[in-house]
Amino acid sequence: MNQKFFKGFDFSDEQIKKYLEGASKDIAIARGSRKPEVRFHFSYNALIKCAYALIGFEENKRIRSTPGHHVKLIERMSELLNDKNVLICGNAMRSKRNKDLYFAEAIVTEKEASEYLEFVTDILMRIKEKIS
Description:
Elements lengths: L5 E3 L4 H20 L3 H24 L1 E3 L5 H13 L2 H20 L6 H22 L1
Antiparallel strand pairs: 1-2
Helix pairs in contact: 1-2, 1-5, 2-3, 2-4, 2-5, 3-4
């Protein structure tokens, strides 16, 4: 694992639990909104919190806040879950989020918002099963 992006950190069970609870709350907010942009952004936040929880649990590593750190979180989560779709879909979400945040150019459709929400919900369930 690249030391430029990750550093050792002794996570407590409570800290891991808080990341998973945060991801669950973000998913609940996404489900409660009719606006695709809100559903998308809260789904993305949940995705990142899932990565923090999984990497913290599996490797006792924390991401450093450096340019490209979300890419590395998604890559590592994909590897730990042994699922290339996590990398593909996660990076599509990251790219769309960046286009919206930095260039105000992203449009999130109803279909995308729903698909991304289900994708992240599935990841959260898989990580909860792995951790419990």
